[in-house]
Amino acid sequence: MPRDTGFPAADAEYDFLRARRGQVLARLGAWLRREPDDVNIMLPFDEVVAVLGRTGERRLGHRVVDLGSIVGSVDRGREFDRRFRPTSAQSRQRWERLAQAARRGQSTPPVDLYRLGELHFVVDGHRRVSVAHALGLGTIDAVVTEITTRVPAEGIRLRGDLITKDYHRIFLDRVPLTPDRRATISLTDPWDYAELSEAVEAWGYRLMQDEQRFLDRATVANRWHAEEFTPVVEMVRQAGIATNRTNADAYLWAVGERYRLIRSHHWDDAVLTTLRTRG
Fold this sequence. Notes:
Elements: H1 8-32, E1 43-44, H2 45-52, E2 54-66, E3 70-73, H3 92-103, E4 111-116, E5 119-124, H4 126-134, E6 139-149, H5 161-174, H6 179-182, H7 192-211, H8 217-238, H9 247-262, H10 269-278
Parallel strand pairs: 1-3, 3-5, 4-6
Antiparallel strand pairs: 2-6, 4-5
């Protein structure tokens, strides 16, 4: 907790030193625990948006924002860590002036943020966010612009999580499902999105061969979901197979085992009986 001696200048100096000490100890702790390198690094806004696929934006105006939801920045510098603790003494004087103003109850301009889902990224106001964290505040005044994306931002915690989202976005480019069907596809291993894409495209090729006509990607994707994915998942679930997997994981496992064991693209009771012994 921040101390209050009644001398804002001295207390602000202590606030900065405490924040710096916390950053150093957090970095040391992460190293000792052999945690990923990105555990204390801010999420870079440009990389996140590139992975999720930007579709638009809208100005939301003034909002009161939970400090814990601010996880990144449009600035690629390393002046602050993931929790906005200073990583050096480079901006100490400006930081302490802001801390003194906050301790005196003086108003400061709202910070400027981008919103992605429930996450926020700083456009302007990094030091104000840092000071708010150091003083133990839970919220901060902000001017917010919401960014909409093809792939939702939910599930992003570390920079490494962007790998999963990137493969998911590529899957949606290759398999353009409607939004409601898109929400049903979740794979545990990001590499499996490429395998699932190929499975859908192969199914679409066989469908076009059977019907002797060309079908665009969106038509193939949504017919696959309705005519193949949903029925197969229902059969697998009713048979009590792969119960510890997501629906998409269960589907991908089932079709892979079906072809490996039986060399067939069709479904019948014999296939399910064989798979049940493998599940």
